[in-house]
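Two proteins, back to back. First:
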Amino acid sequence: MTLITKPLLESPLSPLGSPQPECERACSHAFGEELNMGSTVSSMVCAGTHVGSASLSVARANLVLAVLGAGQLTLPYALGQLGIVFGLMALVLFTGLSVLSLRTLAVYELHFTPGPTDCLESYSELVVRVLGRPGSMICTFLLAGYAWGGALSFMIILKSEFGWLADVSGVSRYVGDLSSGGSAALLAVSAMFLWPVSSLVDLSALKRFSPLGCLAAVFVTVVSAASMLGSNLSLPSIPSACSGASRTGDLSSGLMLWPTSWQAVAASMPLFSFALNSSWAFIPILCTLHDKTDFRVGISSWPSSLILSSNAIIFLNYSVLSVSGYWMFCDSVEPNILDSLGEAMVPGSFLGNLVASARVAVAIQLTLALPMRFFVARQALVPNLKRFPARLSASALLVGSAAVLAIMPLSLATVLGLVSSVCASFIIYILPAYVDLKLRLSSTCNLVGSGVSLLTGIFVLFGGCWANLAGVSVGS
């Protein structure tokens, strides 16, 4: 596809102005932080020294880092609901829709900012440029909901990992069962670390730990694949399928190829959307790319382009984790694959130690990542609070409400499914498709794809909410 580069004065939107001082100050923010945190976004295009400063390999690494994380832990469970054939087809479909979303965003990013030193700094800026003030309100809601809802989901994961740590360390003997130990530890960490840190005015120091999320995600995939292969690292056979379920004492109906109900499909689809959400981070990453040609960005199909190569890496990681996790436990797999692996592996064995290392890595990574999510949610809802007591009060409400809900017997798959049904459906599918169909600057093929993406987003939004609220997803 060739990018249509209409002169900006012919755009259906207002012509762009030159960079202003306030915009230049916004550009000085560290890379990767969402500008203005959902508040009204400046109508100007920012120019900064970081614009066009990254090579293709660096931009690709940043996009992969922004996507891989704890959201992938539910993918084997999604395959358990959909069946291995239909589940892999769904993973291919949603990866393709993610590619389409990024191509659409790239078309309009480059249309609005054709200059080599100019760029839109965030997803929000693009939406506001097209939708105006309603777009700002939508982005504020999506940013706050996605940040807080994702934090709640991650706290549920953290409760599970803290419970396991309390059990293996012997602390659970003093606090009751495994879940009680995890809840007590989560409340303690929330009060002593998450609350005060998320109340700070600047969390840029935590950004140095951001690669831990990607490293932990890849490590979990390696551990899952190694567990499937076994200690002799041999390829599994059909009779070995679901062997992990027998070790945990769970009953399994064996390998399932197709879903058993439309409700299971509707409940599981949002889990793929959450794990594959690269749209929100894409525009600031694209802003840093040097020499933004159609081939380097991926507007024209090119295997090594930013869009295609990064999504290929993400797809490969997710495929290995999904298949290996599902192959071991089949439909008895837990919403958090680490829970299933922890129950199946012998403590002290080589594989048992690998699983234990992965659980510790995920616990550390989530503990360090959660303050930024609460910070983003606070900035979206009540931006620019100057006084520390005010920030402390706002953070107490956000962290406290999430912690209280997390210690309840909520299903990780249900919470993550609801968050993704509402937020990811808009961010990845509905808003990019609406922008494309409204302005019609891309090719006919891309417009058809946007129509499919819009319908998919509507299905994920309404079908996912209905199925998850109806209690199709189970387990914690």
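And the second protein:
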Amino acid sequence: IISACQKGGQWRQALQLLDLMRSEDLTPNEVSYNAAISACQEGIQWQWALDVLMAMEDELVAPNRFSYNPAIGACAKGHQWQLALTLLRSMQQADFEPDTVGCNSVIGACKMGDRSRSLLTLILLTEVQHIASELMKHEFLRSEE
């Protein structure tokens, strides 16, 4: 049901369903959380996406790439490039190799970022583009095997 909320852009309902599951002593799994985070991304609700990501960790449900990418995307859509970059780094620290989806979201967020910080944005953008370039090389090499 939460996945249907995600596809319909109904982020409020997705969050309400997570709360309902908890109140009924049902433990949401990573699929439920990921769908709620994706719904928040669609609704450009980066604060809620981060709250759900933190709730996963609090409830000992391990986030995965499908948790991080929509959270990064929500931050990017909300023009929160610093948070998007922080999440990308957190993803790496959690031993998940960033993919082109996460990297492209961060690049887009940096491009939309505060122009008064253009030098810092350029440095961060270069760092993320390097990560994306390495990922594309790695993916190409894997496809050649």
